[in-house]
Amino acid sequence: MTDQTLSMPSPRAVDPDSPTHTRRGEAKPFDAILFSSFGGPDGQDDVIPFLRNVTRGRGIPDERLEEVAGHYRALGGRSPITAQNEALIAALEQELARRGIDLPVYFGNRNWAPYNADAVRALHRDGHRHALGLVTSAYSSYSSCRQYREDFGMVLEETGLVGEVSIDKVRVYFNHPGFLEPVVDGVAGALQSLSVEGHDVDRIAVLFSTHSVPNSMAEASGPEETRVAGSGGWYVEQHLAACRWVMEQLHDDIPELPDWQLVYQSRSGAPHIPWLEPDVNDVIEQIAADGSADAVIVVPIGFVTDHVEVVWDLDTEAKETADEKGLAFRRVATSGEDPRFVAALADLVQERLDAQFPRRVVTDFGGTPDVCGANCCVGRMCRPTTSGVDSEQDVERARAEALTAGDPS
Description:
The chain is α/β, with parallel strands linked by helices. A 4-stranded parallel beta sheet has the order 2-1-3-4, with helices on both faces. A 4-stranded parallel beta sheet has the order 6-5-7-8, sandwiched between helices. The longest helix has 20 residues, at 177-196. It has helices spanning 19-22, 47-54, 62-73, 81-98, 116-125, 142-158, 177-196, 215-219, 233-249, 280-290, 308-324, 339-353, 392-405; strands at 32-37, 105-109, 130-135, 166-169, 204-211, 259-265, 295-299, 328-331. Helix 4 (81-98) crosses helix 12 and helix 7 (177-196) runs antiparallel to helix 12 (339-353). It has 2 domains: 4-13 and 175-331, Rossmann fold (3-Layer(aba) Sandwich), CATH 3.40.50; 19-173 and 339-370, Rossmann fold (3-Layer(aba) Sandwich), CATH 3.40.50.1400. It has 13 helices and 8 strands. The model is unreliable at 4-11 and 394-409 (pLDDT under 50). It is 41% helix and 11% strand.
């Protein structure tokens, strides 16, 4: 296993200090926060209806949905994501109040109650007109960034509030230290724990895991001018930059760092469509087969909270794979309700309220824009968005290009 910093081409085709990375959003009198997430079922009867919402328009029969439903059913049919988001919102409200920021937080989801439309109706009913969208995805891609902007645009159409309510999404925040510092501590703690058990650092593999997406979606992530064939786009580069930064912070205490790799999980979709690889379980099996390590640390760096895809895919399946192969296993916690991450979310809000507020950015990727560039993170279902610079012509062209590329999103 090798350090992936040496094996991935860089998609950076523009300078990190250019407007592509530094474009700032329009100043508005923001008067509310729309906290938006993926959503999850509340009980066994909700599982299939929820998965139908997730896969709407893709023609997937219930028989195939039942394969994924088993992950939720094994946890009682209730996803932990709603409770986790409610706790995160409560902590954010306290942090905003501590800073003297008087903005109410409304909670909406893409795929289950409470829905985004209900949250927007509520904030409008309460007299608010300029909402700041805060989402539970830290990276750039169609499903983790652009689709939320499209969601906001569709919700305004659905509620009849186009032109009366505005929703501006905050920047992607994978490079905020408040998101990454808890990960550093988690990796350090896991290394220490394994060391106490007698595992040498050079016999430990660190696997940074994130959600796999179709290769075409990854290639289209980021603005048009940044794309380099075979690079995985901004989605892959941002993850690699985050991983590098986390490992670099360990140097003071651990002069000789263990090998690390970016791996993927939670693949879905038709088998003939290429998705990002390697899968975390395949990598664990390969580590055991080649004898390169006797312990693995799995780091869910692509996720904000310990929801189903972390608990099932890593705590259950990846751990079982490691156990079967005789490898010691540790899974690092997500940033979740860590006070540093809560403060990072408050920073994202304060950045948009005060142009002089310092933007905290780490990693070698550079900054990230408030306003996404033309054709940023396009997908097959590409629609007009909020918080971007696409024209209707851009959207139509981007949709045609994505269809040609076979993007199943």
